[in-house]
Structure formats: C-alpha cells, structure tokens
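Example S7 (structure tokens).
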C-alpha cells in the first residue's frame, strides 16, 4: 500500500461515529434547534459527505475529521432552523429592485397582512348573508373606483397577460410590433409568455419602426386582438416610431377587435406619471379606449406582487370564467396588502407607500442625511468618505433607466481594503447591505434606506471598514 493510500485508510478509520458527534460540545446547540432524530440524520449526512470526499480528494486536506463533520453539521442546522428569506439594507438607490423584492410595503399594508395572517378571515365569506362570497370583492371595488372599470387580480403581470391572451386569442392571432417584443429580465421574454398562452404572434413592423399600416395589413380572419406593450427596460433612440394609443384604438374599433395594452408598471396617478418619461397613467390608456390593460402590483404601484387586469366589463367577465384564473389567483395576504395600498391612493395618502415616498424624497433632505453619515464615518476613523452628486434609479422592469438626482456617500477603496472587498464585507453583514461599486468606490444612496435602518447601516460600515488585509 502506498503511503498516500495508507493515510487515506487511516483517515477513513478515524471518521467519527454518529454518537460521538452527537455527544460533542457543539451538538448541544444543534439539539436546542432541532429534534435529536433530525440532528442525527444531518450528522450521518455530513459523515457520508466527508467519506466521499476522502475517497476523491487529497487526504492531507482532512486533518481533523471530527472538526470537519462538526462544521458541516453546523451549516446544515443553520440552514434548516433559520429563515433563508431575510431583510437586507438596500443602499443601492434602485427603488424597485426586482432581486430585492421590488416595492417595500407601507405600514398600512404590513398591518393589514398581520391582522389577518394568523387567523381566519372573510376571504370568500359574505358575513352579511352568512354564505359563500368571492375573493374578488376585496380589491375589486377599490380598483373600480380608481380606474373606472372592472378589474381582476392575479399572481403577477406575466400571469395577467397570459390569462388575457389565453381567453381572448387562444388558437388565433394577436398582432404585436417587433419593437415591443422585449426581454424583461432573468430570461423572461414577452414572446415566450404570449406563445405559452397558445396565442400566435403576428409580428409586424421593424425593430425600430412600426406604423399603423403595418397593423392594418396584418388584420385577417384569424386575428383576435391587437397588443401594445410598454417597452419596459428598453429604450429606442434615433429613427423610431410607433402608432399612438389613440390610433390603435381607432384601428381596433374599426376591425371590431379588442386592443390590449401591457403597461408594465401600474402608474395610478397623473402627478407621478408627469415626472417619469414614457410612463402613461393606467387611467389614461383606459380613457383612450384600450379594452384591457395589464400591470404589476409591485412596480410603480408600490404594493405586493400581483398582476392587475382591467377594462371592458364583458371581457373581464369572460376572463374571470377561464379555468386558468383559478390557477393564477392570489392569496389572502396579497389581497390584504393590495387593499391597504389602494386605500392609501384613494385617501390621497401616497406618502404611506414607500416606493413613492423614496422617489419623491427631496434632495436637500437626502443631502443632509448623506453629510451626516459621511461625518459619522469620518469621526470613527473611516478614511476617504465624501458626499458626491449622483443618481438613484427607478428600476423594476418598467422605465428602469429613469434616473433621479441624488447625493451619494462615496467611500474610496484603499490598498488594504478595495471597494470590491468592502462591498463583499457589507454583503456578508447581518443584515446584508447592498451597495453600488464604481471605479474603486463604494457608493451609498440613502434614498432607499429608511431612517430606521440608518443605525444598522452605520454599524455594518464600521464593521466592514475595520476589516483589513481582505483586499481582493
Ligand atoms: C415587468 C413587466 C412585466 C412582468 O411583470 P411581472 O409582474 O413581473 O410578472 C410584463 N410586461 C412589462 C412591460 C413589464 O415591464
């Protein structure tokens, strides 16, 4: 036997027994979190993994099998007993950050969720009549009041478009401009969703220009609808063009076909729409005569993940009867949060909606906060901090390129701690802090950090800037 294989055999023999690990000092803490049988399973799993790697890798990597097993079990116990979904501090300045859960909910929405989450509720029960009711009523009448037309709520905007096409177009054709067949992010492409609904796309125009005649020429026996899509994260400049909503409405009417518009974001107020380029308010499209609009609940609307479709009563009723509606409907927690968010709009208290509040935060307030933060860091010996002029991003699929001027705190990387290393330390903090890095500078945007989190942010920064020698 070679010396190396001898080492390996000795190590394999020295693998700890399950009971031995369970009696180790570390095990006491695991047994506080999980029942003995489950911990024993994890120990067995860890010993098995170690045995596998001993057979594959260099034995010299495994000097202390008991320690290695303990560390593996520790990781497994943490993963099983702690929530993997946890809060993060968003200092990136991206207001609707899809990876960070898009719109944070306002206090009324959070309260509404907690008031019904832990018990029974009247989700589908009419307490007046003492009989079965419909879950649609909870947000339906509020949306009707805000938009002036009936609406339905489903899981997200992708589900809303899917359902609309499945009901109105299935096996027929929907006419759509080539310039609007965008990919929204994470590999999600509008054309894929459209095709999954069994609708056939009749693509018209060219990537940069589509005119009304292109739509008109494509009308045929199999046409079931016209579709207009918000170009979302995609901005065309130069020689571009597409028909106005009004032109498409007129064409759809003359052909007795419905016009569907995927608006992406749900911009519910004119005032908000004015400040954002290319973001028509939902009501404007409806007023113009679009037969059905769809939009997200967690983009500009500032509510929970949801898809809202609204428009002509007969079409909405048809879609409501589609069996897939049942598969795409939302749960009571979503309805509670959405209802509270819609109440904020109806009451004119949009300040209760964090995404809108962040978007509207005045530069002077942010500047004062940024200087305060920068000085606090400097007082604690953090070098290379300054306040610079920068921009926050709206983010979130729709108009993600929309920028808002915002003062930023910049922390210069240095030889012992580069900006990349500082960024990674901040991410490893609990709660993790998400920042932007630009040219060896960490950029902090307080627009998306509620004041209640600022203390924690400072703690994370002081922790992270104390790390020396981690320069990547
Ligand atoms: C974001 C977006 C969608 C997808 O919305 P989800 O709510 O994420 O499903 C669809 N269409 C457009 C134009 C969008 O901007």
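Recovered sequence:
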């Amino acid at each position: 036997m070679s010396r190396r294989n001898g080492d390996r055999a000795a190590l394999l023999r020295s693998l700890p027994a399950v009971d031995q690990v369970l009696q180790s000092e570390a095990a006491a803490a695991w047994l506080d979190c999980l029942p003995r049988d489950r911990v024993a399973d994890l120990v067995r799993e860890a010993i098995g993994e170690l045995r596998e790697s001993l057979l594959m890798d260099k034995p010299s990597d495994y000097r202390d099998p008991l320690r290695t097993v303990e560390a593996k079990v520790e990781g497994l116990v943490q993963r099983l007993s702690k929530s993997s979904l946890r809060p993060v501090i968003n200092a990136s300045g991206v207001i609707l950050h899809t990876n960070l859960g898009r719109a944070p909910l306002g206090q009324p929405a959070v309260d509404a969720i907690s008031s019904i989450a832990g018990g029974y509720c009247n989700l589908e029960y009419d307490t007046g009549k003492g009989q079965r009711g419909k879950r649609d009523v909870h947000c339906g009448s509020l949306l009707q009041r805000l938009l002036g037309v009936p609406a339905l709520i489903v899981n997200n905007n992708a589900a809303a478009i899917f359902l609309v096409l499945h009901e109105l177009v299935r096996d027929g054709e929907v006419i759509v401009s080539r310039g609007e067949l965008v990919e929204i992010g994470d590999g999600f492409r509008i054309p894929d969703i459209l095709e999954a609904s069994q609708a056939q796309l009749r693509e018209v125009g060219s990537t940069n220009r589509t005119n009304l005649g292109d739509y008109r020429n494509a009308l045929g026996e199999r046409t079931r609808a016209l579709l207009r899509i918000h170009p979302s994260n995609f901005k065309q400049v130069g020689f571009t063009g597409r028909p106005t909503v009004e032109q498409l409405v007129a064409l759809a009417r003359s052909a007795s076909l419905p016009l569907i518009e995927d608006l992406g974001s749900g911009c519910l107020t004119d005032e908000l729409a004015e400040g954002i380029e290319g973001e028509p308010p939902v009501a404007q499209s409806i007023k113009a005569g679009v037969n059905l609009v769809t939009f997200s609940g967690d983009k500009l609307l500032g509510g929970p993940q949801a898809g809202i479709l609204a428009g002509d009563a007969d079409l909405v009723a048809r879609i409501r009867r589609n069996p897939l509606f049942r598969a795409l409907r939302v749960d009571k927690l979503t309805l509670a949060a959405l209802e509270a968010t819609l109440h904020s709009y109806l009451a004119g208290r949009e300040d209760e909606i964090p995404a809108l509040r962040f978007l509207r935060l005045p530069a002077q307030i942010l500047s004062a906060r940024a200087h305060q933060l920068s000085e606090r860091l400097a007082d604690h010996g953090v070098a290379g901090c300054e306040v610079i002029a920068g921009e926050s991003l709206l983010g979130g699929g729709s108009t993600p390129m929309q920028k808002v001027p915002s003062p930023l705190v910049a922390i210069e990387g240095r030889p012992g701690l580069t900006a990349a290393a500082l960024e990674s330390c901040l991410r490893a903090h609990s709660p993790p802090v998400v920042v932007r890095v630009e040219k060896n500078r960490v950029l902090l945007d307080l627009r998306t950090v509620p004041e209640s989190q600022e203390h924690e942010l400072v703690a994370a920064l002081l922790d992270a800037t104390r790390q020396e020698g981690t320069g990547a």
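Notes on this example. The mean pLDDT is 91.
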